[in-house]
């Protein structure tokens, strides 16, 4: 059995439609009162959106119910599906902890509660019977104040047993007016020994070269090989990996045809830039990681050799994978030793 690493999955977008529907039925039926039956909800939840902003609005639907009390429910089902249906050996979950705190509290109170959210996600993940190595990436948010984003970086530094990195999310078109501030936050994170990734070059609105030197991995980054291939040699020198999430670009209207990704893979491979294939929001898409692999092969975007290289890169660039090799190599060593007996 081949085991995989998933480097880019959002906690809010990871809940598959059926699980979310059942939760709403039992706890918040008003949120689904507009839908006559489940199939109507699934169609609404997973359909293609026109823009990234419209797509991100769906996150608020899930964030509002991922509270201290309900997070174990969602984490358990997420990891169960990841192990049984996706063969994941490693999973990095990313989210903004501030957005899991009660909205009726003051900003300072919500900041204080973020540590509890991180603890709940971490302890629940570690207490389950499924053998998946997990870690958290805490997302700064383009629409949150500087004080909150700095507190998120501080929390990442304080909770290293559960947190492996920080990210920047929330819609890339909103970065421009706060770019100096965001650069300072990344510099602060790196100076504190925190690993970094960030949602940049996902859309044509998110191309900020100023942020690239501060990222160890690049969230999406597909516009670099598509529009700015001259930047690829610098990415290769910095050993930066793109977290490419194929279905996302169709769901957000960023690409019209998934086959446009063929140029992304070809140019990155030619330049020596690693790609990790990811799901981003497996629940919103109703698509699991092995299907992302299969889809890329079916459309002749990559071949099997390229797929294996991307799978190797995912483990190599994983922020908290504790072993020097991917699971397949470890299992092959065990198999070889047993055959020599």
From TrEMBL:
<keyword id="KW-0862">Zinc</keyword>
<dbReference type="GO" id="GO:0006154">
    <property type="term" value="P:adenosine catabolic process"/>
</dbReference>
<dbReference type="InterPro" id="IPR006330">
    <property type="entry name" value="Ado/ade_deaminase"/>
</dbReference>
<dbReference type="GO" id="GO:0043103">
    <property type="term" value="P:hypoxanthine salvage"/>
</dbReference>
<feature type="domain" description="Adenosine deaminase">
    <location>
        <begin position="5"/>
        <end position="319"/>
    </location>
</feature>
<comment type="similarity">
    <text>Belongs to the metallo-dependent hydrolases superfamily. Adenosine and AMP deaminases family.</text>
</comment>
<dbReference type="InterPro" id="IPR032466">
    <property type="entry name" value="Metal_Hydrolase"/>
</dbReference>
<dbReference type="InterPro" id="IPR001365">
    <property type="entry name" value="A_deaminase_dom"/>
</dbReference>
<protein>
    <recommendedName>
        <fullName>adenosine deaminase</fullName>
        <ecNumber>3.5.4.4</ecNumber>
    </recommendedName>
</protein>
<dbReference type="GO" id="GO:0004000">
    <property type="term" value="F:adenosine deaminase activity"/>
</dbReference>
<dbReference type="GO" id="GO:0046872">
    <property type="term" value="F:metal ion binding"/>
</dbReference>
<dbReference type="GO" id="GO:0046103">
    <property type="term" value="P:inosine biosynthetic process"/>
</dbReference>
<dbReference type="GO" id="GO:0005829">
    <property type="term" value="C:cytosol"/>
</dbReference>
<keyword id="KW-0479">Metal-binding</keyword>
<keyword id="KW-0378">Hydrolase</keyword>
<dbReference type="Pfam" id="PF00962">
    <property type="entry name" value="A_deaminase"/>
</dbReference>
């Amino acid at each position: 059995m081949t085991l995989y690493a998933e480097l880019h999955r959002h906690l809010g977008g990871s809940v598959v439609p059926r699980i979310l529907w059942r939760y709403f039925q039992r706890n918040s039926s008003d949120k689904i009162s507009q839908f006559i039956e489940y199939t109507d909800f699934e169609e609404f939840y997973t359909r293609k959106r026109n823009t990234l902003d419209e797509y991100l609005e769906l996150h608020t639907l899930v964030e509002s119910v991922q509270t201290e009390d309900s997070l174990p429910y969602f984490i358990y089902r997420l990891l169960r599906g990841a192990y049984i249906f996706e063969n994941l050996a490693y999973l990095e979950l990313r989210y903004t902890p501030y957005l899991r705190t009660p909205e009726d509290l003051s900003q300072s109170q919500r900041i204080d509660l973020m540590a509890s959210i991180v603890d709940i996600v971490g302890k629940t993940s570690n207490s389950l019977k499924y053998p998946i190595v997990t870690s958290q990436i805490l997302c700064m948010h383009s629409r949150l104040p500087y004080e909150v984003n700095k507190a998120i970086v501080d929390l990442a530094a304080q909770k290293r047993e559960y947190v492996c990195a920080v990210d920047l999310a929330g819609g890339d078109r909103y970065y421009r007016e706060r770019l100096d501030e965001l650069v300072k936050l990344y510099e602060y994170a790196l100076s504190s020994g925190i690993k970094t990734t960030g949602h940049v070059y996902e859309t044509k609105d998110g191309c900020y070269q100023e942020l690239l030197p501060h990222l160890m991995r690049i969230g999406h980054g597909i516009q670099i090989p598509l529009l700015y291939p001259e930047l690829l040699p610098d990415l290769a020198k910095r050993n930066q990996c793109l977290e490419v999430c194929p279905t996302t670009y169709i769901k957000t209207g960023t690409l019209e045809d998934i086959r446009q990704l063929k140029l992304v893979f070809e140019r990155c491979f030619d330049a020596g830039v690693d790609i990790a294939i990811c799901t981003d929001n497996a629940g919103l898409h109703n698509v699991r990681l092995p299907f992302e692999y299969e889809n890329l092969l079916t459309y002749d975007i990559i071949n099997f050799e390229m797929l294996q290289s991307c799978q190797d890169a995912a483990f190599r660039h994983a922020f908290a994978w504790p072993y020097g090799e991917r699971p397949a190599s470890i299992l092959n060593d065990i198999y070889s030793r047993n055959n020599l007996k």
